[in-house]
Amino acid sequence: MYPDSEYSEYTVLRPEAREDFVLTPYLEGIIKRSLAYLKGGYPVHFSGPAGSGKTTLAFYVASRLERPLVAIYGDEEYRTTDLLGGGNGYHSSRTVDNYIHSVLKVDESMAKRWVDHRLALSCKNGYTLLYDEFNRSRPEANNILLSVLEEGLICMPSHYTGGNTYRAIHPDFRAIFTSNPMEYAGIHDTQEALLDRMVTIGLTYPDKETEVQIAQVKSGLPSKDVETIVQMVRGFRERGMNHRRPTIRASVTIAKMLAQETIPVSPEGDFLEICNDILRASNGHEGRLTAEDVRPYFP
Q1: Helix (H) or strand (E) segment spanning residue 112
Q2: Are 117 and 83 in contact (CB under 8 A)?
């Protein structure tokens, strides 16, 4: 992933598939369906809990489209103008007419300079739009997407279009969305009309095989040690202490720290301290983990 120098002012990216992206049958099936929907012109919406890999998967799918990418990250403070565009300074012109030597005519004009923001830029040029956690933005800010996704039109201010307030979007425009569950803090309810215009693919935590491969690729630890870590994290996830569950990030973080500090995988010592720091934070566990808590997950 790197900025496109031609459009660096607008943060246009050239997505590339990450070398450490893990493909398993579980993920390959989701990617295949997602690309098929996008090829047919349908927006794809990845919905699922934190740590289920929504954003990573969205960027990978975007890279497979081989088109420039514009990313938007949901924000409660967004208004429609933050997505669409607005005035940014002024453009002035001055014409001096001295064709007749004895007559000097000066014509001056000034107009507000319009700058496309990311949604308008994507629609105009046929880029891929990745709107991450779009339900963190207020529903009224996202209303502009209704005509974009259904009619293929984007409503532009009349002073920009010269009277034609609707502009057809580029045929290569594609949109990928991600969202968090409603019970998460800072999340807004999404209008049904907008959800009805997307193909929603629900994501859960990955299967054990996928989680082991991801943690192993990220950390470089032997597969046997990673399997123990993943088994332990998944066990705490199933217990769901205080309504909080450790995600795949916990597996990756533990594995990477053990590899970095060359700490052996054993239910005691520094390994236990690393688990206390990471798993207690994600579980909301009030007491310290003991060797008896983690030993059942060792072979």
Answers
A1: strand 105-116
A2: yes
Expressed as residue numbers, the domain containing 261 is 208-297
Identify whether residues 129 and 248 lie together within a single domain: no
pLDDT per residue rounded down to tens, the chain (299 residues): 545 544 444 578 887 877 778 888 889 999 999 999 999 999 999 999 888 889 999 999 999 999 999 999 999 998 888 888 765 555 556 666 666 666 666 566 655 565 778 898 999 999 999 999 999 999 999 999 999 999 999 887 765 555 557 889 999 999 999 998 887 778 888 899 999 999 999 998 888 999 999 999 999 999 999 999 999 999 988 876 545 678 899 999 999 999 999 999 998 889 999 998 888 755 444 567 888 888 999 98
Closest CA to 128 of 199, 45, 65, 180: 65
**The amino acid at 107:** D
What sign does the CA torsion over 232, 235, 237, 240 have?
A: negative
Query: Are the C-beta atoms of residues 63 and 17 closer than 8 Å to each other?
Result: yes
Give pTM, 2 decimals: 0.81
Q: Please tell me whether residues 97 and 146 are part of one structural domain.
A: no
